[in-house]
Amino acid sequence: MTRWLDFAFSVAGESVDRDYPQGLYEALRTAAPWLDEEPLAGVHPMRGLTPNAGALLIGGRTRLVLRVPESRSEACERLQGIALALPAPLHIGSVSRRELLPHPVLHAKLVVTGAEDEADFVADIARAVDELGLDCETIVGRRGELLIGEQRLAGFSLMLHGLSAAQSLKAQAHGVGQYRKLGCGVFVPHKSVAAVGL
Asked: Residue 20, SS3?
């Protein structure tokens, strides 16, 4: 059974575009072409960014986090010290390795299934959860968008709760929906099922 880990990199730079996910992944795949060989690999939405005049400022707590199989540990460590062009340089610093936690409540900031409205999205999620064999409840939150080229795709935040330990790890390893390498459908533990911040 494949063991999945999160590799969290410190980063330094000035800012990234508001619609940074596609540019970030294109820069990452140049530095780490093996990412394309891992269909379930994920890139977390970057946290610790501050909105400012059309851009997102990078702060001391900003992290770049990759979710990849444990077999890619050495490849991830080799990313330390490189710079990604976004187009402003994003300098990759030290990395820390994080275990996935089997938490009963998980949250994804944005999940994209191809559905434009919430009713179709809910139906897509029900099918996806069933296909993964997850016995859990779902809560759909805020609508968001993902920019790919000139196209804006609709999505929603999503919470899964009532997961067993095994199901929680499976959901984190597989994700839900499309564009996992662009930060979509990447689940992290959440403290409660309260809808605050969804």
From this structure: coil
Which of 72, 99, 126 is where one domain is finished? 99
Do both 83 and 19 map to the same domain? Answer: yes
Q: What is the pLDDT of residues 37-78, one digit of tens each?
A: 999 999 999 999 999 988 999 999 999 999 999 999 999 999
Residue 198 has pLDDT above 50, yes or no: no
Each residue's pLDDT tens digit, 130-180: 999 999 999 999 999 999 999 999 999 999 999 999 999 999 999 999 999
Burial 47-64 (b: 16+ CB within 10 A, else e): eebeeeeebbebeeebbb
| Structural domain that includes position 149 | 105-189
Tell me if 93 is assigned to some domain: yes
Residues whose CB is less than 8 angstroms from the CB of residue 64 and which lie 6 or more positions away in sequence, other chains included: 8, 9, 11, 24, 43, 44, 46, 90, 92
Phi-psi region of 131 (alpha: psi -120 to 50; beta: other; left: phi over 0): alpha
What is the model's pTM? 0.93
d(CA 20, CA 5): 23
Cβ-contact 175, 187 below 8 angstroms: yes
Rounded to whole angstroms, the Cα distance separating 58 from 54 reads: 13
**Domain presence at residue 175:** yes
